[in-house]
Fold these 3 entries.
Entry 1:
Amino acid sequence: MAKIGFIGLGNMGGPMAANLITASHEVSGFDLSASAIEEFKANGGSAMANTSDLVKDVDIVVTMLPAGTHVRSVYTGDKGILAAAKPGTLFIDSSTIDVQSAREVADAAKAADMLMIDAPVSGGTGGATAGTLTFMVGGPDEAFAKANEYLEIMGKTIVHAGGAGNGQAAKICNNMILGISMIGVSEAFVLAEKLGLDHQKLFDISSTASGQCWSMTTYCPVPGPVPTSPANRDYEAGFTAAMMLKDLKLAQDAANASGASTPLGAEAAQMYNLYASSGEAETDFSGIIKFLRGTS
Ligand code: NAD
């Protein structure tokens, strides 16, 4: 049994922490939200008053925070958790953040004699609850080896993608593919509608032909062909348009900083920006098809 501190007990962090508790680890937690703390306590966790007290007496710290600014402020500075923890503590940051922040915080961790990995996830709240997340990990071999048994409790697929920041790099590359492919599949269904081609017929053909992809076969943006896709429940999220926009912006920031040419990623970011700001930010990202039809 390990002593684990968990910071950020929201939609993702809450169920991830619950899985660590179920696996008989002693988990203490901190969040700014009273309701997140109440749920964490109901799941068997012990709440701490602040992050410094939380990290003092644990072997491992997991963070699941909204963005890079939150991660920087929680980790670094005089009151940061890197200053408060015991040397050798293992830090696992599973937040989705920009590559540069991830690398800077990893450098600060190394300088403080700590072990750290960036380990963003895909799989959504369903995967967090079921313990079937995919972890994309960046960081030194020693930290990855130590973290693996805990990641296995929260996830099913764990890939060590290289050095610090490479987990975040993998996450934004993957989600850029997803944003672009969801728009592509949606455009095909909108064109099919105009041409009098039935949704199910297009699905039957494309799902087994060269148009096959996850956005078509698992998360189909029209109701019917894939009963579990959000299209069947009026695009209730799932993965919100706001979150897709966040990841596409991170991808564009990284492309600009590194000089990579990503014109379709840039276009996808623009389209999700327009879609999200038309009152659909909390709608599932596959609802972009409504925007293409001009009905959102
Ligand atoms: P959330 O908003 O539900 O949870 C974030 C939690 O962090 C909140 O409870 C908030 O109170 C807490 N928090 C913020 N600042 C804090 C601080 N300084 N100290 C302590 N707690 C603080 O968000 P979420 O959906 O759980 O997402 C968390 C991360 O996971 C994000 O980076 C997101 O991009 C990523 N992610 C989310 C999903 C998803 O489907 N929700 C999927 C993959 C990745």
Entry 2:
Amino acid sequence: MLVLGVETSCDDTAAAVLLDGRTILANIVSSQDQIHGPYGGVVPELASRQHIKNIVPIVDGALDKANVSVQDIDGIAVTRGPGLVGSLLVGLSLAKGMAFRWTIPFVGVNHLEAHLLAIQLEQDVPFPYIALLASGGHTLLYCVKNFGNYVFLGGTRDDAAGEAFDKVAKMMGLGYPGGRVIDNLAKSGDRRAIRFPRARLKKGSFDFSFSGIKTAVWHYLKSTGEEAWKNKVPDVAASFQEAVVDMLVQPTIRVAEANDVRRIVLAGGVAANSRLREKMKEEAEAKKIQVYVPAPKFCTDNGAMIALTGYHRLIRGQRDDFRLNADADLTL
Ligand code: KG4
Ligand code: ZN
């Protein structure tokens, strides 16, 4: 079965062609980082306009790369939420138009579910597993029991982890999106240079909080003065990153132990972070919990994870009709 996956939930226009839920024939992502960079964050109106420009060439490009024509496609999977409504509507409208014109079954996909399953594009991870989904908009813990069966275990009380990376990068004038820049700078910094506080939530809670660390960095920068902190940007980056990583690693391992699940999967853009990948492995493996990490291109938004999630709905006989709408606040 050939599935076309279309993803336009935020600022990346992406399309992929997946064969039998396993073989990626094409996976194309067009990033809008350069457009939103000067604003230090995604500007929704600009994102929608850019999707409109990109979507047809990206979908055509994916079909060309896969060496298939639209008539060969057996199903279309498209992100229906959560995300920016103007962005979502571009992908959804295109998918509906194609499905109508060529009589192809189509299904709407939950973007969060797709992140939780992205690891399965590369390896067969046995169920159940604990998934830490950390992206620009979400920080969530789920127990993934099977395709389509997810149990919520915890989430952020305020900012998402990726948002903390992006906001701290903006404070320091490092550009957008901030996660990758901070990750790279931190490699040459001392992560023990500054001891930023780690949020402590009630015992037994598996929630996260990242607004405190953001404020702590702001106070640090203000009290140190620009002249002084500009000389130690890698140290600030490494120390901040270490605090965020600790706050992600600890609840994830505790929730795995509390549920007696010996597998942890990282997902979402922040899962591309090199220190998070390293520390989660170190600490979990010491407790005999195995950690699975997708390649960075499957951590950040992509069409292949949408195609995979859609494939598992299509083979269960699920279909959506043309009344399907975008849902900016869709939950799992
Ligand atoms: O999953 P994603 O591509 O889009 C959303 O659904 O939000 O995640 C984007 C987020 C951004 O906040 C970005 O700064 C962060 O992931 N990110 C990283 C890294 N690469 C991307 N954060 C930390 N380290 C990275 N290497
Ligand atoms: Zn995402």
Entry 3:
Amino acid sequence: MPPVRESLPSPAVKPAARSLASPVGIIYGVGIERTEMFARLGVRTVGDLLLHAPRRYEDRRKFITIRELELGKSATVFGKIVASGVKRFRGGARSVYEFVLEDGSARLHCRWWNLPFLERLFAVGDEVMVFGKPNLLKPRTMDHPETEKVENGDDITVHINRVVPIYPLTEGLPQRAVRSIVWRAVQEFADQVRDAHPEMDLTAVRTRAAVDAAREQLELEARPLPRRAEAIRSLHFPNELADADRARQRLALDEFVELQLEIQRRRQKLERNARAFPCSGDNRLMKPFLAALGFKLTEAQVRVLRELRADMGGPVPMRRLLQGDVGSGKTVVAAGTALMALESGCNVALMAPTEILAEQLHRNFTRWLEPLGITVELRTGSRKTSRVQGPESQVGLSLGNSGPRTRNPGLPRLVVGTHALLEDSVTLDRLGLVIIDEQHKFGVAQREQLLRKGRDGGRFPHLLVMTATPIPRTLGLTLYGDLDVSVLDQLPAGRARIRTHVRDAAALPRVWAFVRAELEKGRQAYVVYPRVSESDHDEVKAVTKEFARVQKELAPHRVGLLHGQLRSEEKESVMTAFRNGTVKALVATSVIEVGVDVPNATVMLIEDADQFGLAQLHQLRGRIGRGAHESHCILVAEQKTDTAKQRLKVLAETTDGFALAEADLRLRGPGDLIGREQSGVPDFRFGDLRHDRALVEEARELVRKSLGGGSNQ
Ligand code: ADP
Ligand code: MG
């Protein structure tokens, strides 16, 4: 490894050229090898280096003595190596390297398994700081602790005697090399860091307001956030731990501000430039639709339809998110909104993330709208033609590559589909409204693609997106900050009660007996497993394997199998059989999570329930309790960890999907909450959506004020 060159500045870069954009390797002459190591950490320029956040801090102003170490409790101690050596065993195949540290109070054994080369790095007499958890007290021992040698002539203002940053490393790059270079970079360059938007006063934001309830303990004094330059300094070399936290909050706020700027500018551009078809309708189809529904709309549904109608009649294309807990009746609201556009002579497209859901929506909309003379078509990967007959070329919405686009001479129509709607062969004319169900499974790009397809000269379709899963506000503002929000905060009356039970695997025989009894009463059941097929890596149960066992347990009742890897015809035929009651129990993966609506089903049995997120379990539970019979959700899990226990307990005690979503966000983080497929959750370096709700709100307000108003939400 080349020695670190101490001469500053390096001859390759003239002083005038030294800036945040300068390459770290050249500025600090670290050599090619280390330059590559820094690059592996994402650090190329001085600016990158300043944003390379420590993964933790160590308060090296006060060390505890080795004697004071407690079992299982992380701590840093400082001492001198008094013995060092490698022991080999199993014929040399395995080894343990150990040194003994002594600080005058006691001795500490530090061991590393199968890393014999460590012997070359330490010698008797070396002074070393050691961070770790003792796993034995007699003798005091730490396995695989972190170490840092104290070198002769060490700069005590950098490495000791202060709150010291500990950085994420890559192989071959020592902690103190990184720390030394960051120190120099902070001294020389932190002052060059500017606040990106001086017109917004981010320092006016108080940390107290910016602290989540869970962290309030930590920081009770209301101090303003630092400027960005100061935040960079305290991020690396804080005077106190609290300063590091404030620095992180400031840098997180900057990230949220950038995102809000992007979101709110997009919205502003839309309001300035885009025009919509007037689509508020005249009630001529709405009235008979509501009369034929067979139930009265809830107050929440009526209120939301009013909000939607106001948007649909306006000159600016609607951009609205409809949130509502599972079972709150979003589909009816979507149908009502579609009718407004259809009454106004415009076509409507509805996109759903799965074939099963698209087919179910198609079935509902056909039942509701066909009697009113509206044609409802289905377009999925496997179904390319309209089920409802009528020559396609006569209408504006032509499917398949047949026929030229023509103006709409007849009645408008509604097309329901999956992402297949985005294919080039699908043309969408005079599109007044786009509805997207389960928006988060698509992401902004696909949403915009569908809207662009519907663009007609300067006119854009109205947009209604729906989420099957309630979304915590922090995430909502981040993912859907450019949308207005309507909330269905009320469930239709007369819903059967759902009881939730948490059981361990030992209780399965009784659980199966219970399910059989329900089937005997004429009810139906879902049995859900986390996987389609087994994996070599774990013991998680899979539908294809468990199917035979469930058949045996529930004999002689007929059991069906449903998962995402079946062909569409197979999926559809098993769903049909379950819906009409010939199949009594459905063994499925979480494909049934959304949309499936079979009121006679009263049991939701979920095995390995700890594998699912709370929001997902809540959705699954929402498949039952849709009829008049009392329903049971049974969660079977080993609950090995406290978090697993806590999560299932929260679910058993809470039926409010919004509260569950908040809990899930805190317990699992945004990526898992939204689903891995297409989360669209931005990758924040400092921001943490679990805790930073107040900061997200602050960012939104700051940007709103700076852009000059613009009200949404
Ligand atoms: P979600 O909001 O989860 O999409 P759905 O739209 O699937 O809920 O509605 C759940 C069930 O409730 C459906 O069977 C639907 O027909 C029924 N429903 C919707 N609105 C009402 C209402 N106002 N009164 C009674 N039942 C309703
Ligand atoms: Mg739904």
